[in-house]
Amino acid sequence: MAELIKMPRLSDTMEEGTVAAWFKKVGDKVQEGEILAEIETDKATMEFESFYEGTLLYIGIQENETAKVDAPLAIIGEPGEDIDSILGDQINKLEKPNEIEDSEPPKKSSQDSEKTVEKPMNYEVHVITMPRLSDTMEEGTVASWFKKVGEEVEEGEILAEIETDKATMEFESFYSGNLLHIGLNEGDSAKVDSLLAIIGPTGTDISHYLNGSVKIESEDSPKEELKIEQKAESKVTEDKDSSVKILKTVKSERIFISPLAKKLANDKNIDISAIEGSGENGRIIKSDIENYKEPVVETMAQPIISSSEKQEYSEVNHSQMRKLIAKRLSESKFSAPHYYLNVELDMSETIAFRKQCNTIPDTKISFNDIITKACAVALRNNPSVNSQWFDDRIRYNNFVNIGVAVGVDDGLIVPVLKNADKMSVAEISASVKEMAGLARDKKLTPEMMQGSTFTISNLGMFGIESFTSIINPPNSVILSVGAIIQKPVVKDGEIMVGNTMKLTLACDHRVVDGLTGSKFLQALKPLIENPLSMLI
């Protein structure tokens, strides 16, 4: 089905954009994630990538032409598809406001609503909202602030770290000025487009923004009026000499701590207020948490009363990553009819192959690297498995992008090896190591985690002999890899010591039938058991 692409809003103040260059022309094939065009905004010229795969059927804005945000930019679909109805609908939508101009005043855009809030005669105040930093992001958490209220902010400076559903990313300021207000404290979460901060000239009265109402609208969320109120931690004390209760505002002192150190402290249940940071400006860093020792408190022995002893526990709020894992995998498990195929491999030749490869200087490959390469080759020859399910169609991919599941403290991240079938085992090894490191440091970009057509989950290094995985939608299959086990096997009628490994292929029965999945494993088995065959 043809997909309409509109002029994107690439900055929070962007109202129109200019196409600086097209990287595709009508009739060209477009892959998901490919750079489609360069768009010049009010702040910079940025690359704009396609979220769809297909043929470029239509270009609505030519190079050096300018158009409003949401104007038809392009249409991607299948060759020969009828796009007249799509273009007709868009033209009607563009013409409709003119037809009713006399009877109904034009509605204000979300950008206009931010700027026309009743306020002093000062046009340099900028309301910054929670940005959408990934295509699936619905809310974000402020991991840390790099500025505090009252400090000067330069355009391009890092303002905060925002934890999305996929990674923790630095968020830079588009404006210069004084940080007048922070709407979310560190650790607080809010929906996309919620108030994040206000920047403007020093001494500007922003009470109109905080005590009034600011309309924040986006094309992805319903229009609603958000009341923005200044938060303060309050404590009620009672005067002993009267029955009058006095409300006192208590300001808590901010503790500067890196996101990683904060997470480690939460995991270890350490009170960060008791730690003196060794980082810049007293910032608590990872080593401060790792080297911290709880003070020893001597107490007198107390009798044990088990019946009335209070049971203690700790609770941790869901991270954005954990929320997304729960949502996506629940949808997959409850909607995709999973079934499982198992096969056991003889790994003797594979062990010898890996050992020989690792004698080459500066080479260190893992069994998982060999398995990844074998899967890439098998997928190239079995496109029916290299497929994806969508509500209205099945997509058979002509490229092989393999997601390699990496466990991190917060959950599971799946960086993607693009065009893995064209990579050598050594190149796969280097790429996996690099992306695994970025994943653990929460430095993966959204682009590095998008576009997989097949996923591998390996728990063999933990001694797990076999297990089943949940399919990563919209993919049709996922491969679970177990440990290499030494055990008695029968070869040529004789019992001997062998090295075996079990694979489990989880399949979506809507796309991959039992015969199709079996043929894939039948093609994969000899590639892993005899890796030299992949080099011929």
The number of distinct structural domains comes to 3
CATH-wise, what's the superfamily of the largest domain?
Chloramphenicol acetyltransferase-like domain
Please identify, by name, the CATH architecture of the largest domain.
2-Layer Sandwich
Instruction: Enumerate the spans where pLDDT stays under 50 for 5 or more consecutive residues.
Output: 94-123, 212-252
Sheet having the most strands: 6 strands, mixed
Q: What is the third-level CATH name, the topology of the largest domain?
A: Chloramphenicol Acetyltransferase
Q: Kindly report the spatial arrangement of strands forming the biggest sheet.
A: 21-30-29-28-24-27
Supply the helix-strand structural class: alpha+beta
Q: With helices defined by DSSP (H or I, 4 residues minimum), what is the helix count?
A: 10
Strand proportion, as a percent range, falls in 25-35%
Q: Nearest-angstrom radius of gyration?
A: 29 Å
- Mean of all residue-level pLDDT scores: 78
